[in-house]
Design a protein that fits this description.
It is a single chain. This protein is mostly helical. The protein folds into 2 domains: 20-279, Fido-like domain (Fic-like fold, Orthogonal Bundle), CATH 1.10.3290; 281-370, Arc Repressor Mutant, subunit A, CATH 1.10.10.10. It contains 16 helices and 3 strands. Strands 1-3-2 form a 3-stranded antiparallel β-sheet. Helix 1 (23-42) packs parallel to helix 12, helix 4 packs across helix 5 and helix 5 (88-113) packs antiparallel against helix 6. The longest helix is centred in the last third of the chain and has 41 residues, at 258-298.
Length: 371
Amino acid sequence: MSKAKPYIPPDFPPKDLKLEPFIQKIVEANRGIALFDGILRALPNPDILLAPLMTNEAVLSSRIEGTQATFEDVLQEEAGITPKGISDFERNDRKEVLNYKKALLSGAEEVERRPLSLSLIKGLHKILLTGVRGERRFIGEFRKTQNWIGSPGSSIENARYIPPDPIVLPEHLEYWETFLKRDDFPDKIVQLGLLHAQFEILHPFEDGNGRVGRLIIPLFLYWKGLISRPSFYLSEFLEKNRTEYYDKLLIITKNNDWSGWIDFFLIAVIEQAKTNISKAQKLLNLYNEMKDKFIQATKSQYAISALDAFFRQPILNTANFIQITGIPNRMTANNILKSLIEAELITLHKPSEGRKPAEYVFSSIIDIVES
């Protein structure tokens, strides 16, 4: 069998790329992003209201790479709730998702202070892989060895795709970063699509390339001024269309077919914008509806703090609730939680047991996020 060879990338960005066939979809994609940003700008407290969508992005982007953790699993992990009998594999899945969320938060802070760059991206990679599977690999640095993509346990000879040789990688990453910094490309969403695809094609890290590539999406949109917060997430569409996602990337390397990829990416943005707008609006409506209900149910000065706590973490135990709300004593907190249960606004998921605090669920948020 002849030895399979690493991919040799042609010029990037691709030459003679014609955008005319995509004008209608480009307009639709930009309109969708703009409408979503209109909602972002109208949110009174976006950090709180959009927290569930960020967590779900971390779940779905990680799931594309094979993790099995659900949205509720990760909410439990954030609350420090570990079910009995959980395996090391399941625990690691949860940790990987939480690392993704940390990387999203860190990236959002970093692009406030400095431009999106390869240096910043290496920092995100380090956060992503610290303390999880792949940690023993070269984290926070670009690879010095040859990697490949194939079925688990397959050899390089049977690889589905072999990324560029590490010797030529720095040169192509330089081309990638130069294009990242360009402000004169005709359309920023198409520019982002090209950048995302080329990043996955270069596969510059030993592990975590897909997740880092998807982290770049909201950061780029924010950095380039298309959205007022780095909160436009695409992984829901990409996870639902995983096979086509991979196939379109692979066809670029086989046939240099960038048009098929651009078409797919624009459709992804158009469709995901509709979903993101719908969910953000539903979360805002839920918050406004629940403000009065929480106040009426608790008759407490901490009613809004309690609501904010459940938006930040829809699954909480008593200890988390006290810590997030800042309620000064346990009795007050317990009375508020009891009132919310009696009003059927939250659910007692598990009563206290010995030293383990009771667990509570605000299922309305989970229903919206998972719809």
